[in-house]
Design a protein that fits this description.
Blueprint: H1 2-15, E1 21-23, E2 27-33, E3 42-43, E4 51-55, E5 58-67, E6 75-87, E7 96-104, E8 119-126, E9 133-139, H2 141-149, E10 154-161, E11 166-171, E12 178-184, E13 189-191, E14 224-228, E15 239-243, E16 249-255, E17 257-258, E18 265-267, E19 270-272, E20 274-275, E21 279-285, E22 291-293, H3 301-304, E23 312-321, E24 332-334, E25 337-342
Antiparallel strand pairs: 1-12, 2-3, 2-5, 4-5, 4-11, 5-10, 6-9, 6-11, 6-12, 7-8, 7-10, 13-25, 14-15, 15-22, 16-21, 16-23, 17-20, 18-19, 23-24, 23-25
């Protein structure tokens, strides 16, 4: 009994997630567009790396990029973007409004960052000279999870003015700016990745090495599967989390063995990695490319998967719909595989 208690305690400690990690931007820039045509022509020099402006003749957008490679393959529990925008020219031109957008960066300031496709995560405003600055804070959990699930190792922030005239403002260059990311420690390990380290993907649609994804879908990303929480049959807190998929249906399933020695075999647009006695755990609808099993109201994984009281090793995968004309004539793809050893 004491031995079993120590084993459960060790599992609980292993499944406890870390505190949020504050990531500061290491790429700081401001792009300049004149005359205004939506494409940057140059960068603003020091000390105006955070310049934001919009007037009839010119526009400046502030760019930050955050290094996030350390979070690859982990489940994002929470992510918060915070910082400050301050006045650089205090002329009263009414309320100044701004948009904050995130994109997959590359660790370098590029003129194309001025117009790269980016997801709106929040807005802000203030009214100089009465107000000299404003602080922002946005919950970006789903956006960060999607970018990481898509293989991003840098996350870019673009701040742009939306009111005009909007005289010069400065995005704080790292004093208060941060991206706080809270991830859970994973339980188990991944295998059968679509990056060429296992069986080749069906159409040369390999994902990036080290991204720990399945084969690429029509979105240009590979589906990912991770597990976290306590994998104990007597105290099941284990969750399977899929990401990097289209907003479609996703079937979570379990097997008693790996296929082809863990290398998988081509199946649809991806690789089938799970074999043996297979149980369908449940079908979910992806939102922002992600879903999980169990969700509220679902049986636990061990109950639905009929994991015996003694525990043992089991293997998991997500089979998701990808109806776009891509790769083979099939309309589905799969995530990487995920193996877990259950404790009693």
């Amino acid at each position: 009994m004491i031995r079993r208690s120590f084993a459960l305690l060790a599992l609980l400690l292993a499944a406890t997630h870390a505190e949020a990690t504050d990531v500061v931007p290491t790429v700081l820039a401001s792009t300049h567009d004149a005359p205004v045509d939506g494409n940057a022509d140059s960068f603003n020099g020091s000390p105006f790396e955070g310049l934001i402006r919009l007037v009839a003749s010119q526009e400046d957008r502030a760019i930050h990029e955050y290094p996030v490679a350390a979070f690859t393959g982990q489940t994002v529990l929470n992510a918060t973007l915070t910082g400050t925008v301050a006045v650089n020219n205090a002329f009263d031109n009414g309320v100044r409004t701004f948009e904050f957008r995130l994109y997959a960066g590359n660790g370098a300031a590029d003129l194309s960052d001025h117009s790269i496709v980016a997801v709106l995560v929040g807005t802000g405003s203030y009214h100089p000279p009465t107000q000299t600055s404003f602080a922002y804070s946005f919950d970006v959990t789903s956006q960060v999870a999607t970018l990481l699930g898509g293989g991003a190792t840098w996350i870019g922030l673009r701040v742009q003015a939306t009111s005009t005239p909007n005289f010069p403002n400065i995005l704080d260059v790292g004093l208060t700016t941060k991206l706080a990311i809270d991830v859970s420690s994973t339980t188990g390990s991944g295998y059968c990745f679509g990056d060429g380290s296992a069986t080749a993907c069906p159409c040369g649609n390999a994902s990036a090495p080290g991204a720990n994804q399945g084969c690429l879908s029509s979105l240009g990303t590979g589906g990912t599967l991770r597990g976290d929480g306590l994998a104990s049959v007597s105290n099941d807190g284990f969750t399977l989390r899929g990401a990097g998929m289209p907003n479609s249906s996703a079937l979570y399933f379990q097997g008693t063995s790996t296929l082809n020695g863990g290398l998988g075999l081509a199946f649809g647009d991806g690789l089938r990695c799970v074999a043996g006695s297979v149980i369908r755990l449940g079908t979910k609808s992806n939102v922002v490319g992600a879903s999980q099993y169990p969700a509220a109201g679902d049986p636990t994984v061990s109950v639905r998967g009929l994991v015996p009281l003694a525990g043992g090793q089991y293997h998991y995968q997500v089979w998701y719909r990808n109806a776009a004309a891509f790769c083979t004539s099939s309309t589905f793809n799969l995530s990487n595989g995920w193996s877990v050893t259950w404790a009693p």
